[in-house]
Amino acid sequence: MSISARKVRDLIGDWHPRGCKCEKDLERSLHRHLEKNLPSSEVIMQYASGRIKGDLVVDGDVLIEIKDSLTSTGQLQRLMGQLDLYAALWKGKVIVLVTGESHRDLMNALTKKIDALKETVSFFDDEKYFLVLHGAGQPKQEEWSFFK
């Protein structure tokens, strides 16, 4: 039996990466964390099947796409394209994990995209798309100033 996406999402919430300098380091760290906490599950790094590519896949059903510091329109557009491919070709669940510093407008656009994809899932089906903001992945709040 495969693990639930909610369980994976909860484990991501318990994950505390240390010393990660790039997205690949985050991927390795999360892989170790999931393997340690899901000993009876298969956790694959750099999963690829046909046109589907993901950073991690758990039990062939939960695909995790990691984005470190969503700070450019190009990054957002690439991620949106990946999400469209997942919607068309991936039958399992999708977790988009955003870490690092992210621009609020890009996060708002990503949230709208995830919400739109959620609407395409049947009422009777389990939730398929999850957006997880980890640590500094939360959008930066603009500082308020009287002089602005």
Short characterization:
With 148 residues, the chain is an alpha/beta fold. It is built from four helices and five strands, in the order H-H-E-E-E-H-E-H-E.
Protein architecture, described:
The chain has 148 residues and is of the alpha/beta class. The protein has a single domain (9-137), classed as 3-Layer(aba) Sandwich (Trna Endonuclease, Chain: A, domain 1), CATH 3.40.1350. The chain is 39% helix and 22% strand. It contains four helices and five strands, in the order ααβββαβαβ. The protein has helices spanning 5-14, 23-37, 73-89, 104-119, and strands at 43-49, 52-58, 62-68, 93-99, 129-133. It has a five-stranded mixed sheet, sandwiched between helices. Strand 1 (43-49) and strand 2 (52-58) form a beta hairpin. The termini are far apart. The model is unreliable at 142-148 (pLDDT under 50).
CATH first level: which class?
A: Alpha Beta
Number of strands: 5
CATH fold-type name: Trna Endonuclease, Chain: A, domain 1
Shape: globular
Beta content comes to: 15-25%
Strand order of the largest sheet: 1-2-3-4-5
